[in-house]
Amino acid sequence: MLYPAELGAHVDFSTSQTLPETRRKWKSTGGDPRATRDSSFGRTRYPVRVSNEARTAEAHPDPAHAAALARAEKLIRELPGYPQPGILFRDITPLLADGEALRVTSEALIAPFAGQFDVVAGIEARGFLLASAAAVLSGAGMVPVRKAGKLPQPAVTIDYALEYGTASIEMHADLAPGTRVLVIDDVLATGGTVAATLDMLEQLGYPVCGTSVLFEIDGLGGRDRVSDHPLHTVFRSA
Q1: In sequence order, what E strands does the chain have?
Q2: Bridge-partner residues for 162, per DSSP?
Q3: C-alpha closest to that of 103 among 152, 68, 154
Q4: pLDDT score at 34
Q5: SS3 of 7, please?
Q6: In a domain? residue 33
Q7: Is residue 49 part of a domain?
Q8: Among 45, 126, 180, 225, the one annotated catalytic
Q9: 8-state DSSP, 75
Q10: Any catalytic annotation for residue 45?
Q11: Strand 77-80 and strand 119-123: pairing?
């Protein structure tokens, strides 16, 4: 049974990390909300800061908000034996197809981190959908964390273990120095994908304010695996 996790807890995370020397030539965008082009690197640059006023999520939901989350929870389908025997798959497509459910869960994903991030990193594939919605609500940018071989110029590739196999992820190094990142994914199970994403962001030198997932499966060790950064989950399941 899924249930709404507690929202609104204050999150404090230092953003004093810096990028490697080879990327210090980039200039600050000064908070300009428009992405620009860096002629020397030939890469798209993203805004370094998004104002707190642009963050629309409330950190303390009222009873109506909690009821809306409970309704959204009921839209998640459980499919046993997919993608292979022994796996219980959570299908969020009914939730995504419901405008109100998508809005309220997107708000819940970003609420504890309001004002602490400049871009949202969405993990392939369903994390793309949630991260994009969260980015629009918060006024932040969105960057994809992709499976191996899907990006033309991957900055770094990391191999990791899944609950039903192994995989690799990649990410471009297109963010400006000092860009603060919020990681978003649909589920936290063993934590392999999220942990690999956090490792990759650390290697690239981007400060991470935390990780937010739609739901967490208890008992698989995922929370302990990503405990170096603040973690927020909207729903949990046994």
Answers
A1: 3-4, 36-38, 43-45, 77-80, 88-91, 119-123, 141-147, 156-162, 165-171, 181-188, 208-217, 231-237
A2: 165
A3: 68
A4: 35
A5: coil
A6: no
A7: no
A8: 126
A9: T
A10: no
A11: unpaired
Q: Assign residue 6 a region: left if phi > 0, alpha if psi is -120 to 50, beta otherwise?
A: beta
Active-site residue flag, 126 = yes
Whether 238 and 218 have beta carbons less than 8 Å apart is answered as yes
Of the residues 58, 163, 223, 236, only one is catalytic, namely: 163
Over residues 80-136, the pLDDT tens digits come to 999 999 888 999 999 999 999 999 999 999 999 999 999 999 999 999 999 999 999
Q: How confident is the model at residue 1 (pLDDT cuts 50, 70, 90)?
A: very low
Q: Which pair of structure tokens corresponds to residue 46? A: 């993203």
Omega before 83 within 30 of 0, i.e. cis: yes
In a domain, 194, yes or no: yes
Q: Token match 């964390």: residue?
A: 145
Residue type, 66: A
| Residue length of the chain | 238
Residue 6 lies in a domain: no
CATH (domain of 108): 3.40.50.2020
Range of the domain at 200: 60-237
* Total domains present in the chain: 1
User: Identity (one letter) of the amino acid at 26?
Assistant: W
Among 110, 71, 112, smallest CA distance to 94 is for 71
